[in-house]
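Weekly puzzle thread! Below is a chain. First person to post its structure in C-alpha cell form gets bragging rights.
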Amino acid sequence: MRVMLTTFSLLLLAGGIACAQGKEGLPPGSRSLSQTVRMLEQRQIRPISVALNGRQWRVEGTDGKESVQLEVDPRTGKILSREKIPDLDPVEGSLPLSRIIRELEKANPGPIIRVRYRKKRWVIETRSGKTTTEIQLSADSGELLMGRDEK
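Winning reply:
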C-alpha cells in the first residue's frame, strides 16, 4: 500500500491532478466513501462496484449467498434499498476495498464518484471541477497501475 501512496503522490505532483476540497454531489455531513464501504464489509457485503447516483451511493456486490444492488445513504450508511441482481464475477485476492479507498482519500485526488472492479484492478474515478480522473490500482497490492485525466 505504501508503494501505491508514494507513486500516487508523485503522480499528483508531476501530473498536476487538480484536487477538490468539497464532496461534490454528496449531501452535507456525508461519511467518507471508505467509511461507508467499511460498514458494508462489516455486514458481510463485498462491494464490486460503487457509484454516486444522485445523492446516494449505488453499490453492487455479493453478500456470500447472492449478488445484490443497494442504495446507501451517504450520511448514515443505512441501506435504503436492496435487490437481487444477476450473479457478478467474484473479486478474489483483493485487499479490502475500504482500505484501498481510505488510502486514496488520504492522497486527496478529489471526490470519488465511481469505483468498479475490472480484470484484477480497481478502477476509480474522481472529479474536480470539470475534470474526471481515472485511476487504476492493482486489486491485490493497491499499487498504482495507471492514472489519466479526462475532460
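Puzzle host: Confirmed. Bonus trivia for everyone else. The chain has one domain: 2-150.
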